[in-house]
Amino acid sequence: MSDLRREVRQKNLDVFVNAMPKWNPIINAYVLNFDNNKFQPSIKNFKLLRQQNKTQITREGLDESTYLMFGRVSQDHFQLQFRHPFSLFQAFCLALTTFDSSLSRE
After folding, report:
1. Which of 33, 59, 88, 93 lies 20 to 30 Å from 78, alpha-carbon distance?
2. Closest Cα to residue 46, out of 1, 4, 78, 88?
3. Would you say 31 and 11 are in contact if contact means Cβ atoms under 8 Å apart?
4. Contact status, residue 71 vs residue 79, Cβ threshold 8 Å
């Protein structure tokens, strides 16, 4: 077991992972389920789930509760939804990371 996994298990820390997109054969693309939110397709969209089994990162080990969602709602507008244990500052910083690579190309 790696040192990081051992430390997470010993300290009983929460681990959050990106939701895994699923293949949609109708549109020939990977898509995320955003629970009836009106998000437009965007590479910046993401959804964080709490990992239930804190020793492995697998689809099967995820708690399906969403803790943070970020998605495009129009050409220049995005929506950020989050809940405890994320603070407003933490959620905003995570959302800003999706813009990092696009800013460096401009």
Report:
1. 59
2. 78
3. no
4. yes
Residue 44 maps to a domain: yes
Query: pLDDT band at 52, cuts 50/70/90?
Result: low
- How far apart, in whole angstroms, are the C-alpha atoms of residue 92 and residue 61? 26
Buried b (16+ CB within 10 A) or exposed e, 86-103: beeeebeebbeebeeeee
Q: What does pTM read for this prediction?
A: 0.69
Say which CATH number the domain at 74 has.
3.20.90.10
Say if CB 17 and CB 51 are below 8 A apart: yes
CA–CA gap between residue 82 and residue 59 (Å, rounded): 21
